[in-house]
Amino acid sequence: MKRFTKEENSWMFYDWANSAYSIIITTAVFPLFYKAAAMKAGVSASDSTAYLGYTIAVATFILAMLSPILGTIADYKGLKKRFFTFFFILGLISTATLAFIPSDQWLLLLIFYTLTAIGSSGSNVFYDAFITDVTTEDRMNRVSSRGFGLGYIGSTIPFIISIAIIILAQNEVLPFSTTIASKIAFLITAVWWGVFTIPMLKNVYQRYGIEREPKPIANSFKRLGNTLKEIRKYRALFLFLLAYFFYIDGVGTIITMSTAYGSDLGITSTNLLIILFATQVVAAPFAILYGRLAERFTGKTMLYVGICVYIIVCIYAYFLKTTLDFWILAMLVATSQGGIQALSRAYFAKLVPKKNANEFFGFYNIFGKFASIMGPLLVAITAQVTGNSASAVFSLVILFIIGITILFFVPEPKVDSSHTISA
Fold first, then answer.
1. Which terminal CB of the chain, N or C, has fewer other CB atoms within 10 Å?
2. Is 418 within a domain?
3. Is residue 420, in this structure, part of any structural domain at all?
4. What is the CATH number of the domain that holds 86?
5. Is the confidence at residue 176, as pLDDT, over 60?
6. Distance CA 320, CA 384 (A)
7. How many domains, in total, are found in the chain?
8. pLDDT at 138 over 50
9. Verdict on whether the full-model pTM lies above 0.85
10. Which DSSP string do the residues of 142-178 spell out, in sequence order?
11. Cα–Cα dist 74/32, whole Å
C-alpha cells in the first residue's frame, strides 16, 4: 500500500483530536464527576445512572433528527466544511464550559453535556462523510481503521495527564481538590480537541458534491424525499444500515455506560480510570489490525468477528462481580471496539454515491443515533425496574444477534480504485 497522503493523514488526525473527548467526557472523567455531583445532591446510584442514560438518549435524538436534513444540504459544494466547523466549535465551547459549572449543579452538568454530545457527534457526521473525499475505495478499510487507531493512541496522552492530576489531587499531592482536578481535565480535553483539529481544517476539502442552486433548503428536502422514495435502488445500502442499527446500538451503549456500570459495581474511581486507560492502549493496535485483516478476509468477515466478541462481552457482563472481572471485560471490548466502528464506516462509504455522501452519511448517523437512543433507554429502564445494571447489559445480546443476522444478507461492496487522490 502506498504512503498516506497529506489529506488522508489530516483526516485521520481528527480521530486523534476528537477521541480525547470520547474518553474523558463520554466515558471516563465526566460520568464519575457527574455521579459524584448527583450523589452529593441525594440522588441514588441507580437513578443517577438512569438520568445519564436519558440525557444521552435526548442528545442523540436531537442529532438523529437533524442529521439527514443537514447532510442533504451539506452535499452542495463548499458546505460540508462549514457544517463540520460549526458543530466542532459548538462541542469545543460546551466542553470548556463544563469546567466552570458548580460541581453541585448536576442538572446543569447534564444540560451542557448534551450540548457537547451534539457538537462532537455532529462534527463526526461530516468528518465521516469526508472519507469519500480524501481516499479511494480500495484504501478505505486501512485509512478508516488507522484513523481509529490514531484516535485510541492520541486519546491516551490527555487521558494520562488528566488521571495523573486527579489521582495526585486525591492523594493530596496537589494543592487542590479532586473536583478542581476533574475540571482541569475538561479544559485539557477542549485544548487538545481544538489544537489537533487544525490539520483537518487546513488540508481537507470537499471534492464531491452537487452544484449550488436556488432555494437550496427547499431543494434539499426534495432530494431527501426522492431518496426515501427510491430506497429500492439502494437495497444493499439500507439493508446494511438496518444491521448497523442493531449491532452499533450495543457497541455505543457499552461505551457510554461502562463507567457508570463499573461505579455501580463498587469499583473505585481510580481503578476505573486505570482500566479505561489500558482499554485505549489495547484498542489502538487492534483497530489497525482489523483494517489489515479486512483486506485479507473482507470487511464483512471481520464485522462478524467483532459482533461475536460483543455477544461474549454482554454474556460475561451479567456475571461480573470483581474488579478483575471488569478488567477482563474491558480487554474483550478493547479487541473489537475500534475495529467494528472503523470497518462499519468504511463498508458504508463504499456503498454510497460519492456526490451524495453527506446525505447518505446523514442516514448512517440517524440509524446509529436512533440505535443509541434505544440502548441507553433499555439500560436506564431495566436498571430502575430491576435495580440491577447487569441485567440491562445482558439484554443487549439480542441486538447483536439481530444485527449479525441481517448483516448476513448484505452483499460485499465492489471496490473501485479507478480515481486517485493527490497528495
1. N
2. no
3. no
4. 1.20.1250.20
5. yes
6. 19
7. 1
8. yes
9. no
10. HHHHHHHHHHHHHHHHHHHHHHHHHHHHHTT-SSS-H
11. 36
